[in-house]
Amino acid sequence: MNPKIGEKEAILMRTLILIPAYNEELTIGSVVTLAKKYGDVLVVDDGSYDRTSEIAQKAGALVIRHKVNRGKGAALKSGFEYALSQDYDIVITIDADGQHNPDEIPLLVDPIMKGEADLVIGSRYLNGSKKEIPFYRRLGLWVLNKGTKAASGLEVDSQSGFRAMNRKALESIDLESEDYSVETDMVVKAKEKGIRIREVPISVRYDVPNKHKKNPLVHGLSVLASIVSLIGYRRPLLLFGVLSLISFIVAGVLAYLALEPYYKGGNVYLTQAIGAGIFVITGIQLFVAGLLLNVLARMVKE
Fold this sequence. Notes:
By secondary structure, the protein is of the alpha/beta class. The protein is 53% helix and 12% strand. Strand 1, helix 2 and strand 2 form a beta-alpha-beta unit. The two termini are 44 Å apart.
């Protein structure tokens, strides 16, 4: 990588580095200082109760402050609105906790400058960095990435907050999510709008301070729930088809348990038999609901 080349190219277009932040006084100063070599820096302080805003301003960033914590998605939307109002050509999003290396910004900007992509995602899976990911995170990311693939049809590092986008992408992607599911929301909307998406390899650090602001399990389940909602809205037949299949599998297991004693000369277990019937009916209803919702979704799109 040659950052100097990236710096010279970035001068040709107005570039904004957008940093959503919540209680990041320990790291925000260094992130801003490193990032401002590559463009203007905007920190959206999402209701922090520490010195995040003060330190960011002293480091040279413009700061927009939310009075209360509204979520990462809301912080990004505020930043995108600012970027559009100020006619920026390229926006880079980077996390405030120091996990990402701002000196890798040219890697993300390069495909946009060459006209090869509209949205570039920094991926920890392309250069072996995933080996450094703690196992529980690796498992959680795998689930979220597969969920994003089900919603968008794309297999990318869906939870990476290190991204670059041109004005076309910025104008086309209308984000709805206000929490951490915003990264998946962005991918889904970009695919729907025909935005060209590309990944580039980045490095990620996991030894940063204050890395867990939420319980990892609660955080992961919250994002997963949002992704499931996206799947249900955009690909209802897939979601309801899977649920229907699960119901039929449960019905099959219960039917086996109900009939096994009968074949051995005993009686049918009535409770298991009734349960099997209920799950069969449920499976049929879920499948029919998926078909109907799929037709409605297609009608809405058309």
